[in-house]
TrEMBL record:
Belongs to the TCP-1 chaperonin family. One of its GO terms (molecular function) is ATP binding. PANTHER family: CHAPERONIN. It comes from Triticum turgidum subsp. durum. One of its GO terms (cellular component) is cytoplasm. This is CCT-theta. It is found in: Cytoplasm.
Length: 427
């Protein structure tokens, strides 16, 4: 019935308790990283890449977990991270504690299904109690009030970067408020970008209202202001002919004419883009030498954005429409930017695209740090802050912190459990 090499585990000792043991082991790995004073873990993944972090989501994602029961906890942590953006460590640690208590009850003689019924009752009661513990008036929070946003964001950011929250939170709050739409419930986490630049320190970090591309402009023009932007997803190059064919050339004159015709075609296309009013061309693929030559002649700034996702964000920032073919864009297909400039930050040349007046939908937090490892950890802290803002936009209610809520829940659940009646098997 089953293929060769299969294992069949049954009974309490073989299956249930081994599964519980695997869950507890995973929980023990992440538990010591919980909270602002949690220890960092050194993780080396299957590609031999080194991670030093106290972020449980990163730890469990990079660990190669084989046991199927432990994998369930990893999936639970990932679901928590995707939905809320924080709390992955608490999810695994709490699950490990529940499994440990369940093991004691199983050894006492209770059946797993009876334990599940008890846990379900506790969940329902917890949700009832939580509604009573909500701070009065917290449901009417203004998500565009920077002071309130920073106050609520601090605990989430401090759990990753303890001591740096006073510097990081105002930066994240500024970026989130800039891109918050008319209806805050539609806030998109992807609109707050992070640019990590090695060098300097956290105090050198800043927020750019627009995008920061980590590459240089292609041509010699490095700065333009108040410009229209044309975006070509297919690249700026001489396009191949649509049909395959062979051209028979008999003389040097014919070869020269053929080259001139091709050159004239490229010039015509670039001139048509310049005539449309665009001063910046953004290419999603290769930029040909001949095309670049004519862009320089017509004083057009050329940027190359290789990632299609970055290209989409660039279109969101400037309001441009990406065209597949190099051709003259219509007025409504052009985007607008207040300034596009190449700057040198910490030895790296980056292109800063600002759109402060036009009202943009993307903001970038420029993070500075001494090593890549520190920058990665700072990025995770920013990610937690942005996800906290997203949660505020959905539901701004808050409850007391510093474990006060958890202690109150434990106290009330204990009282509730004493009132519950049950039965125990007598052996």
């Amino acid at each position: 019935m089953l293929k060769d090499g299969h294992k069949h585990l049954s009974g309490l000792d073989e299956a249930v308790l081994k599964n519980i043991g695997a869950g507890r082991e995973l929980s023990a790995i992440t538990r010591t990283s919980l909270g602002p004073n949690g220890m960092n873990k050194m993780v080396i993944n299957h590609l031999d890449k080194l991670f030093i972090t106290n972020d449980a989501a990163t730890i469990v994602n990079e660990l190669d977990v084989q046991h199927p029961a432990a994998k369930l906890l990893v999936l639970a942590a990932r679901a928590q991270q995707e939905e809320i953006g924080d709390g992955a460590n608490l999810t695994i640690s709490f699950a490990g504690e529940l499994l440990e208590k369940a093991e004691e009850l199983i050894r006492m003689g209770l059946h797993p299904s009876e334990i599940i019924i008890g846990y379900t009752k506790a969940i329902n009661k917890t949700l009832e109690i939580l509604d009573d513990l909500v701070e009065k008036g917290s449901e009417n929070m203004d998500v565009r009030n920077k002071e309130e946003v920073v106050l609520r964001m601090k605990s989430a950011v401090a759990s990753k970067q303890f001591g740096q929250e006073d510097v990081l939170c105002p930066l994240v709050a500024d970026a989130c408020i800039q891109v918050c739409p008319q209806n805050p419930a539609n806030f998109n986490v992807d609109n707050v970008r992070v640019a990590k630049l090695v060098g300097g320190g956290l105090h050198n970090s800043s927020v750019v209202r627009g995008m920061v591309l980590k590459n240089d402009a292609v041509g010699s023009i490095k700065k333009v202001e108040k410009v229209k932007v044309a975006v070509f997803a297919g690249g700026v190059d001489t396009s191949a002919t649509e049909t395959k064919g062979t051209v028979l050339i008999h003389s040097a004159e014919q070869l020269e004419n053929y080259a001139k015709t091709e050159e004239a075609k490229v010039e015509e296309l670039i001139k048509s883009v310049a005539d449309s009013g665009a001063k910046v061309i953004v290419s999603g693929a290769a930029v040909g030498d001949m095309a670049l030559h004519f862009c320089e002649r017509y004083k057009l700034m050329v940027l190359k954005v290789s990632s299609k996702f970055e290209l989409r964000r660039f279109c969101r920032t400037t309001g441009a429409i990406a065209l597949l073919k190099l051709s003259r864009p219509n007025v409504d297909e052009l985007g607008y930017a207040d300034s596009v400039s190449v700057e040198e930050i910490g030895g790296a040349r980056v292109t800063v695209v600002k759109n402060e007046e036009g009202g943009n939908s993307v903001a970038t937090v420029v993070l500075r740090g001494s090593t890549d490892s520190i920058l990665d950890d700072l990025e995770r802290a920013v990610d937690d802050g942005v996800n906290t803002y997203k949660s505020m936009c959905r539901d701004s209610r808050i409850i007391p912190g510093a474990a006060a809520t958890e202690i109150e829940l434990a106290k009330r659940l204990k009282e509730f459990s004493l009132k519950e009646t049950g039965y125990c098997k007598i052996w």
